[in-house]
Amino acid sequence: MAQVLPDSIRHQFGYLLAKTHQRQLRLFETHTQGMQVSARQYATLLALEANDALHQSDLAEWLGLDRTTVTYLVDGLEQRRWIRRQRDPADRRAHRLHLTEDGIAALADIRPAAGAATQALLAPLGADEQTQLRALLARLLP
Questions:
Q1: What average pLDDT does the structure give for the chain?
Q2: What's the pTM value of the predicted model, to 2 decimals?
Q3: Which of 42, 64, 92, 141 has its CA 20 to 30 A from that of 54?
């Protein structure tokens, strides 16, 4: 007889959020297949589109990643020429990140696929429910 995940776990808020996030990542991978981009890379491009000259340490905080992981993330994007890293003239220990023209073009290519992944996730919900879900989740964040 197959084991069934008990409701005591399946209905836990943390479990639901984690499983939803995992599904979103799988959908992102499916919809961006062939683009060779991760959700973290896409998030970085979006952050830099909105905040030119962002400190690398701020990116780490925003993404909830440690500095070492962000360094590898930035290294990969820099190798693809999607971003440029520059020493902060006011603090030589810090780096500021800039989106390049290639990064802007990549973002334009990725954005529709990422949007399709989100729509696939939210498809069971009506438009009003999607708006409500976003608003409720945003209220839970500091």
A1: 95
A2: 0.89
A3: 141
